[in-house]
User: Fold these one by one.
Assistant:
Number 1:
Amino acid sequence: MAVTEQAAPQIAERPSRLRSIWERLSILFASRTAVVGLVIILFWVIVATFAPLLTPYTPTEQDYTAQNAAPSAQHILGTDSLGRDLWSRLIYGARVVLVMLPISETFWLPGGVALWGVALGLLLGATLGLMGGYLGGWVDEVVMRILDAMMAFPVILLYMIIIAAIGASATNVVLAIAIVGIPGIARLVRSLALDIRTRDYIRAAELRGENPWYIMFVEILPNARGPIIIDAMLRVGYAIFAMGTLGFLGLGLPPPSPDWGSMVAKGRQFILSGSPWAALWPSIAIASLVVGLNLFADGLREESLRYQ
Amino acid sequence: MAKFIIRRLLLMLLTMVLVSLAVFLITEAAPGNVARNVLGIQITPAQEASFLDQNGLDKPIYERYFSWLFGTDWRASMRVGLPVRRITTEDGFKEWWAVKEDGTLVRWQLEGEDLIARLRQPDGSVQTELDNGRWQVKDPKVEIARLEAYREELLSNDQVRPEARQAILQELDQILEILGTVKGEDALSAALVGPEGSLEAMVDAEVAGTAEDFQAAADDILQTDDLSRVVEIYATLSSESADALEAGQLQTMVRQLGNAAKMVEESDPALAQDLQQAGEQIRGDDFQAANQVLAGAVTTLDDMTGSLVQFASALRADDYQAAAASLARVADPAQVPLDEAQLALLPGMVAEIGDSLEDASEPLAGALVQAAEDLETGALDGARSALDQAAQIMSDTGYIIARSESARRARVVRTFWGIDTQDHAVNWEKGGGEETWIFIVGTGWMAISGGPTDYIPLQKGLLRGDPGKSLRTGRPVADLLFTRLRNSLVLAGIAFAIVMPLALVLGLIAGLNEGKMLDRTLSIGGMMFSVTPEFATGIFLILIFAFWLELVPGATVFGEDAPWTRPDMLVLPVLTLTLIELGYVLRITRASMVDVMKAPYIRTAFLKGLPYWRVVTKHAIRNALMAPITVIMLHVNWLLGGIVVVEVIFGYPGLGSYLLDSALFKDFNAIEGGAIILVAVAVGTQLLADVIYTFLNPRIRYA
């Protein structure tokens, strides 16, 4: 009797949605590294979203009077070897990474190449991981062997072969990032699923006679979201890293689209002849964005561990 | 333990096979055309086919995969009938030779229709000798079928004079009978001597090559004379390949039609307009309409020039009699009255045709040039007789060429499998008149009759350590691959030797000071370095050390030298790799150390009163290092990617940049060879990680 009386008010005081969000945010703000990371990320997201308003130039516009120019009032970050404004190329490059995925000349999807790559990898990897972890048996065996074979492939080789095989374009970079991400995600989800499938609510769902796919995607996946989200955040960092590397190796977005990696590759030739700007800015941009994402994910993980 | 290692080794082997298969399939499916990458975009389909054949790329994929794994030399050896061996010459080149019964090394080459054996002497020099004895009659069944088909063709061939045709047919029938009845290689050769000798006598040695010269002349005329070109364009557009024409070709057509229109503008404005219109229609991709207009235009042109516009097209199609007829028609006053309009066009055309024929037949060219002069000066009778004479020469030469050609093709094909000087097993065939394209270094492409019809590129196969020849450089992949691998290993090895102790020590220090300022600086700094892409780090380092401080070179140039000859050039690449790896290893070590320091047995050790450093060095470190060491091994996979980028940034001649170049070039053998090595390194280190882990942690036992 006394027990129920005590419990009742607690149930009534279950925090409201708004409040739980606020509590989570306060966890976030408690970590200084997470805040620094968030600020960097927000900077790039905002700059990318409002890119057309933030520069008078388009990323492909050439200024023949100023080639390889140093920063000045006209071009605040200088220009590249073709006289294109580096600030414009930089922020339009951020757009491709974070805000819009160009499918064709005229059509684009919201969400950048890195985000779509991770999302697609999550979708495929989580499906494989859930199948292996929940269904078990020969399915698990087959899935694990495929993942092992994929893991044995050096990542860079996989990228090179995929892109050399299907050609360089934004969609193909998304595909490559997704394929390379699959084994890691699948292993993570599998280990989580192995743990969660022993819980009572899964037993309950099974007794209700739910379909295995329902159990996998509605019962297991949402309950495994915490580690998956933090992993995904780190993966966005990797994806940006990979995108830059691909661009740098000439396997990224085809020119003249503003791609950070290929900007560095092109600007690199002019460093020792005295105009380092074209290579410097995109290097800083990509480094800052990846570091920001990692700081954010690290801070988040640390704080959430502390509160558990 | 041994069982475990053996199982892992078997698994590794299985992975490698799967990987090689995957690499093979993916590169196969890739778009792009290696023949065009190697030879340029201007090659013809015949040349492309020959290139693919020479490199064995025209074979079905399972056969290529099999050859790639197990080599082709044993198959070649079966075909040639002699053992085949690869030797390394004094200059370090690898060459394939056949071994004769007496042990001499021999290769062959074809000169004209003669087989030349190149015998390698013990001192490395080469002696040549005629080796026609090795030719063998091709399979009689195949030959009967071919010759019977050829007989039909000959019967309807009006390029040959009837009496010559009759003579050839007679010999041909005799040959067919011999092929059908006589058995045995030697008997067959002996029996064929008679009829083939007679056929040989019908071949006029003087016209050898004239057919090609006429072809070249026809091409020349078509290139310089825009009116002849109109006929050719009409033919191209009416053929089935019209849809496959490329934009560039269409543009050329439009331009040529425009030029032709300008030429006839004064004499026939209506025709000029038609030609312009056809050009517009081609531009608008409306081939059908263009064709209709052109049909009318060609008829008009025919009338105007006495069908001289057909001359080049006829010549190109090897129809000498039609070409001669078009000359004769111009000479005939009943057909070509040589009115003013015609006189405006003809002298120029005749002169151009005459010029172009200079190489092919001097008398013919002379007559035509004479005719052109006469036309110019108005001596019409002189012109007509000169043209008549030209037509006569054309016709006679044509008959001789056609007779020689027909007699040649009526012979039985002789075939021979041997080793050529470019490391292929080659099936040479002579007679039969089939043309093949061969690529001769320095000369370019040549069409020859009697030449290689099938190739087996010689290689030992991956399993015997020979992944084949690079299509890009023509050198064996293995040679370059191992130099490049050595360079990469030097780079990675130095970086590894610096990173490991440094990162482990820093990681332990950070772990012992968990949460303090030192720990935060080290781990956040390490994280920043490890997540920054290699190319960005590389650029920063180049800027700081090579550009502003000018301490070390910002690029590496070794040429053929080993990397350690220029240590200053290694500084920046090693530093870049070090920074990337340092943060990663540091963070793992730190986390592991933090975990261990919280373990109960460490607390017990402290409670027992052991001094701090003793606990750390005796109890904590060994356990704390377990995780980082295995994780580092697993990280090799990731490190390989870093090496590729670092090699590209600094122009370092390592395996990674080699692989990247090969992938971009679609150089099959090189990609596949490199990929196998990379995978072997990755899988091997993973195996090593497992083994080390079991040694370090006795609690783990693998069944």
Note: Chain B is about 65% helix and 10% strand.
Number 2:
Amino acid sequence: MAFVSISDVYTADPNDVWTPKNSFALHDRFAIVLRIQADSSLVSKKMLFDAVVQIVGPQQDLTQFPWWIIDSDGNVEPSPTRDSTWTNQSFQFTDFAFFVFWNSYFDAIAHVGNAKQGVFFVQGTIDVQGSDLFAASDRFWFKVRA
Amino acid sequence: MKPEKKDNALLKKLTLADARKRIEEFRHVTPVEGKAGSAPAPSRDSTKRSAGTGKK
């Protein structure tokens, strides 16, 4: 029976996506890595998946310092996750890393208030197109210092 | 690399009420899209690791 799973999720330096890194300076290079295992039939059938990786600011107390953004109407609104969505990704391998990276952590959350320093986490999902298959990761905590 | 002076203002933690008062500092900051890539897992008996090639 076909399967797909995310065995690990972590942040890393994009130059070494196989080594988790849990502390970053604001302008360090930054990657979110999903370690994925897939049935060989997904590769042979050239199945595609959609992936979402999220950087999450866990504080949601609106009287304190939750993450926020300015919406298209110019209003300040809570926005506890920074989502990056990727569609039509192919299964090229049965055991691989899918990673999303920025030249700096700052680039990833430049538009998000209260996200520049603190303790946050990442997580991700993959959704195999045209099938019942999907997988969700655990969460991986990391720190950002200014 | 030190943050630019403008970034220093953005670094300050703000309550939503404070943020509403200082909205101009963020109004023109737009999201930067990342890039994605994939790479096969290194074989267990290999110490050489590859980061693969990133793509948009």
Note: Helices of chain A lie at 40-44, 105-109.
Number 3:
Amino acid sequence: MTDPGDRLLLDVRGLTVRFPTSDGVVQAVSDVSFSLSRGETLGVVGESGSGKSVSNLAIMGLLNRQRTAIAGEVLFRGRDLLTLPPDQLRHIRGKEIAMVFQDPFACLHPMYRVGAQIAEAVRAHDDVGKDRAWARAVELLDHVGIPNAKSRARDYPHQFSGGMRQRAMIAMALVHNPSILICDEPTTALDVTVQAQILELIEDVKREFDIGVILVTHDLGVVAETASSVMVMYAGRVMEYGPAREIFAQPQHPYTWGLLDSMPSVERRLAALVPIDGSPPSLLAPPAGCPFHPRCRYRFEPCPTERPDLVAPVPEAHPDACHLPWDDKLREGAKRSVDRVGEAA
Amino acid sequence: MTFYIARRLLWTIVVVACVLAITFAVFYLMPAGDPALRFAGKNPTDQEIAQIHHRLGLDKPWYVQFGKFSWRFFTGDKYGWPGLGYTYASGTSVKSLIVARAPRTLLLIAGAATLWLVTGVAIGVISAVKRRSAVDRLAMGFALFGISTPVFWLGLMALYIFWRQLGWTGGSGYISPSDSITGFFSHMILPWVVLALLYAAFYARMTRNNLLETLGEDYIRTARAKGLSERRVIFKHGLRASLTPIVTMFGLDIALLVGGAVITESVFNLQGLGYLAINDALQQDLPVVLGVVLLASVAVALANLVVDILYAFIDPRVRYG
Amino acid sequence: MNANGNLVELDHLTKRFQVKQGVFARGKAEVHAVEDVSLTVRRGETLGIVGESGCGKSTTARLMLRLLDATAGKVRFDGRDITTLSQRQLRPLRREMQMIFQDPYSSLNPRKTVGQIVGAPFVIHGQKKGKVRVQELLETVGLSPEHYNRYPHEFSGGQRQRIGVARALALNPKLIVCDEPVSALDVSIQAQILNLLRTLQKDFDLTYVFISHDLSVIRQIADRIAVMYLGRVVELGDSESIYEHPKHPYTAALLSAVPRASTGGRERIVLSGDVPSPVAPPPACVFHPRCPRFHKGHCDVEAPELRELAPRQAAACHYPLERWPMTDEEIRQAEGAERADRPHLEGTVHEA
């Protein structure tokens, strides 16, 4: 979100993804735009059905092009990934943009040794011999903090603990020094102490290799700790997008307020949690107007019919997609400002 | 691991013994009449029947007969080891009968198995990869045909078309490869194809289903995310994980055919083990039946063992717990 | 009837499982799922059991409800020793203790209607309350009585969890054990279910045992908590006291590891390695290989007892924290000592 030039890695404009199904068209992602630069950690926050994972799968080209309608532009270093032919895309995937997934148990092939799977990643884009590839695999496992990397590389995934498997996945992603690392809920399936280790690892890696990180999660706490910029998604659209500090000090969208209100805190016992009423909408027939309006406590006249654009309400604020007047946003946002999190609403 | 194998082999012996006992019991309790009558010729006198009873050992109670059989089995009789005795009908050694017939059945199985494994899996893979395309529907239609068509009809039709009408292949009957290689192949090609067709259909369907399920797993997505070629993803990652049920079935299917390829053997007049067993069972020629049953159950038990071991090698989770 | 107000008492409860290691292996190994756990649950309170995977919290809950048989120790419910009762003798007691499960997608029978699921307890215990009562229950948990004839797959995760709650409430139990009831739900739905549970507790005079790995959730709902690690209780006491002043280093590490939405700085104790396997727990204090306050010669030799270190707060540690947050000096000391004298400081799972 800062300067252009060679620091800008990814520029996504108007990304839209639709799946035709027998029940209708699922509007998984609608008109999503963001950018990513070196040294930046973009936290993408949303609940299930928000489209956060699908967006990244679209960027990586992991969606079945025949069964998905993808529109928009995904500019990686100037080239539009969405228009590249599949084999060119394959050369970028795993080499310049790498992805780490949520459940490391299911993400590694159960019948091959861990080292072999990493070595395979090496040889996917580099014409090196098996020994060299294996050596690189061991080197990376060691780098991500796996003790006795040399002998552990010969183990099978089920012999690794959850945290170690995730480290191995990260090692596998780093094989070709990618410029972008996309982490889809990397810590959700892990214990909290291991979570802390993995987040620290990702941060170290980012600094060491000066790369850009997209961190997808539903956990606002994780985002608050690690992200430099934040994008809040709901029903496939962006609700709010800006620098992390601003988003937490001055949240501008009722959905973000709702998330902050309903989150229990480890720092204080709240008098009551204020949940968001209702449930996330069906993506087959998202609500007209603002997708959040059926559950929004602040909705008023324009909300059910006019969809709000993602714009900054005043020049010094960050963009949000909400019709509310700026004064209201200021006032309500101040109540949830993170410095004061934990005080009863 | 050796301990494991030793334990399994011991169990194999127990299982085979049980199978034999049950077969014996079934025969002894069968109400179809006195076996002696069949071998006694027309209008036998009571005395002649008693003589045959005595000769065949049928005048002793069943446990004595079984005991004698087991004893002779382990220590061998005048025909060598294992002692399988001699047929009621002609007095020929059961062992020599089996030894003469076994190669036909085994060769039939070998050829058909190779055919069905290769084609079945190949068709299954293509179907899975090109899911819902015309190729897929065609393949699954073929599978349905293969599974539904009765083997005897298929065999007879094949003989009629390819031998009678077109003269492309040899007819029924078996020619040993030591006599004539071309004769061997020309007579075996049809039985191989016919037997393979049914199994290929099953394997195609199973491969397709397993592969489709595997391709939905997370580690396939990881493999693609690494930038691997689609071919590698499907074969090295997808197929490998789908293999285990196929291996299991393959071992058992082969073993079951040892005594079970009866229809194919009949239609093509191959005089194999299955045919032998059924034929002589109808004549109540107990020793022969016991001999074939023995062979078949050993085959199945061994196949089970081999498949279990292979399973552990394919899937390291089973090996290391 | 129990005079001292304890609904459940666990006395030196231990549970070990036998496992085989691999198809070819000869030997068996023992998983020390729960070791020497003693705690009480007071009537009307919510006891939170906190810990990471493999710490034994779910096993403890199941032992409490006699869904598992203990290897050693005693379980008392409402003053009565139920450790060795047969399943038949336990039946009438089952009305009084119920469970809500973690996964709303697999804990409801997909072939039964909601009415059948919630009505099952009545049928099992031979009561004929019928449709009306079931519909009342559905309303109590925030669903509509018309949902009676629908199937689970027609509902969202949060609604399914409500169905599970309705089923647990059916026979007016005294105790409900909630095993990670909100872990599989979105944040905004989590809050709905937590609020529901709180309301129900007041309305129906319930006692909860609430299991979770999520410390923020536990803080919202628990009055007292037990922190478990590798099958043992390492800290036990009043919830607020423990959150404000943890005494056991593991509790401190857990608390500091939780990512939080405050951009103020705070120091974090990052434990190295992973949780050791419960098949071969470390000797003496089970936490010593990873403990920042480890003292060689003491912690690896003598197992610490759970003893009261502050009013209503007990911990099993020879060197409990004196102050929280830890001072910079203490942290530096801890990190220095980390690798020096612990040769088996490992992140391995199968080093048995």
Note: Residues 289 and 343 of chain C are 9 Å apart (CA to CA).
